UniProtKB/TrEMBL annotation:
Gene name of the encoded protein: selA
GO cellular component: cytoplasm
Protein name: L-seryl-tRNA(Sec) selenium transferase
GO biological process, one term: conversion of seryl-tRNAsec to selenocys-tRNAsec
Provenance organism: Polymorphum gilvum (strain LMG 25793 / CGMCC 1.9160 / SL003B-26A1)
Gene3D superfamilies per the UniProt record, alphabetical: 3.90.1150.180, Type I PLP-dependent aspartate aminotransferase-like (Major domain) (3.40.640.10)
The UniProt record lists the keyword Protein biosynthesis: yes
Keyword list, A-Z: Cytoplasm, Protein biosynthesis, Pyridoxal phosphate, Selenium, Transferase
Main location: cytoplasm
Function field: Converts seryl-tRNA(Sec) to selenocysteinyl-tRNA(Sec) required for selenoprotein biosynthesis.
Positions where N6-(pyridoxal phosphate)lysine occurs in the chain: 295
Length: 465
């Protein structure tokens, strides 16, 4: 053994040093000890390879302490990082879709901190139903007889198909066999639910007679699916919910309408295209309607099954319901979100998703004029104010875009990628989009101007390799 090993600090010396103590205080003794041991082991291995490299004992102790601290800080960094969504896609699935309204945040926080009457009837002191509070609100807002809440709309569709269609056939148009991002494919969901897919019609045209001709003793239900993320144009014929309702009535079969985005209000009021609402689908004769909580509705991730009481009850009492039920935190947030719909006049002030859609171009232009000089100074680049168009996102209103304003930073080739990376490396990462040889920062969803500006001095671009 060379001189080097005698100079190695003991584990205790490392733990007693300033960095070691700070590390223990922040991350606990056990984690610090295990990092320090690993560090000492690595140091021993280095000395075996190069016995002449004798460390200074106290410098080595402090070095190992700092190394442990840095390693545990890295491991502790959250991967659920807050970002600025300047992509121009308002309901960005990869960035978490809808932002909660303040009242929903408060309700969720209360539900996390305190016990609550979740499945408990305060009048009788007896067990109550988990979905009751929200169910009554949904019925009030949509006119549905009953409602059942689950984890997301994918779960709602799965549950409906399993509860009503298991072992028998579900009839769907070939034009509506959708795939939503993240592997939600209608044929696969049907298989998972144990119902046989009976496709009718063609990609572009499906007539009422196509459904009528397929109805037989094996038929369990008729299904209509909103083609959320594509549009079939040209020589087309879609069988409407109202037409299907007539067929379903005649055959004594349930009609399910998967709306995807659950719109409860007429969006044309805020300058968007009018999207069929849940109320429309029910009025047209759908027996059950399924939709999401975190798309156009602007609430937490959730799935709704609303409509005829006997069918909703069949879903609610199916074993899958228990596996996909909503947790108390999201139920609380959902109740608070739905309550906002009682006052449509103030919805755009209170619901961040709608506020983002409703934001006027002049407002955004003024914001861009305030931000452009700060962004130019921080990046050392030219910043233009450009007209652009925002998208709705999450497969809602696929072709609909809204005029918006972006900061545009021209950059050629690989330069644009590096620029985009540099924005994503800011303390609160800024996620923009690349378009036509420029990085675009669409300002529609910028909700905290001060925080955006305050972090700009940290901007740094790495030299090209
Ligand atoms: C988005 C969507 C779904 C899936 O909803 P999630 O809430 O994302 O699970 C199902 N069907 C349609 C038509 C959709 O648009």
């Amino acid at each position: 053994m060379g001189q080097g090993f005698a100079n190695l600090p003991s584990v205790d010396e490392v733990l007693r040093g300033p960095a070691g103590q700070l590390c223990s205080a922040r991350f606990g003794h056990a984690a610090t000890l295990s990092e320090v041991r690993a560090g000492l082991e690595a140091l021993r291995a280095r000395l075996r390879a190069d016995p002449a490299a004798a460390p200074d004992r106290s410098a080595a102790a402090e070095g190992l302490g700092r190394q442990a601290l840095a390693a545990l800080e890295r491991a502790d960094a959250s991967r659920m990082v807050r970002v600025f969504n300047l992509t121009g896609t308002v309901l960005h699935t990869n960035l978490g879709r809808a932002i909660y309204a303040d009242s929903a945040v408060e309700a969720a926080t209360r539900a996390m901190r305190h016990p609550l009457a979740l499945e408990y009837d305060l009048e009788s002191g007896r067990r109550g139903q988990r979905d009751d509070a929200v169910q009554q609100l949904v019925s009030e807002l949509t006119g549905a007889e009953d409602a059942c809440l689950v984890n997301n709309n994918a779960a709602a569709v799965l549950l409906v198909l399993a509860a009503l269609g298991q072992g028998r056939e579900t009839i769907v148009s070939r034009g509506e066999l959708i795939e939503i991002g993240g592997s939600f494919r209608m044929p696969a969901i049907m298989e998972a639910a144990g119902t046989r897919l009976r496709e009718v019609g063609t990609t572009n045209r499906t007539h009422p007679q196509d459904y009528a001709g397929a109805i037989g003793p094996q038929t369990a239900l008729l299904m209509k699916v909103h083609t959320s993320n594509y549009l079939i144009q040209g020589f087309t014929r879609e069988t409407t919910t109202a037409e299907l309702a007539l067929l379903a009535r005649e055959a004594g079969l349930p009609l399910v309408d998967d709306l995807g985005s659950g719109t409860l209000v007429d969006l044309s009021r805020w300058g968007l295209a009018r999207e069929r609402t849940v109320q429309d689908a029910l009025r047209d004769g759908a027996d059950l309607v399924t939709f999401s909580g975190d798309k156009l509705l602007g609430g937490p991730q959730a799935g709704f099954i609303v409509g005829r009481r006997d069918l909703v009850r069949a879903c609610a009492s199916h074993p899958i319901k228990r596996a996909v039920r909503l947790d108390k935190v999201r139920l609380a947030a959902l109740e608070a979100t739905l309550k906002l719909y009682r006052d449509p006049d103030r919805l755009a002030e209170r619901l961040p998703t709608l506020a983002a859609f409703a934001r006027g171009v002049e407002d955004l232009r003024a914001l861009a004029a305030r931000l452009a000089p700060a962004v130019a100074a921080a990046t050392g680049r030219a910043v233009e104010i450009a007209e652009t168009r925002s998208q709705i996102g999450s497969g809602a209103l696929p072709l609909e875009t809204i005029p918006s304003i972006a900061l545009c930073l021209p950059a050629a080739g690989g330069e644009a990628d590096r620029l985009a990376v540099a924005f994503r490396r800011l303390p609160i990462p800024v996620v923009g989009r690349l378009e036509g040889g420029a990085v675009l920062l669409d300002l529609r969803c910028l909700d905290d101007e001060d925080a955006f500006v305050a972090q700009l001095p940290a901007f740094g671009m790495e030299a090209p390799c």
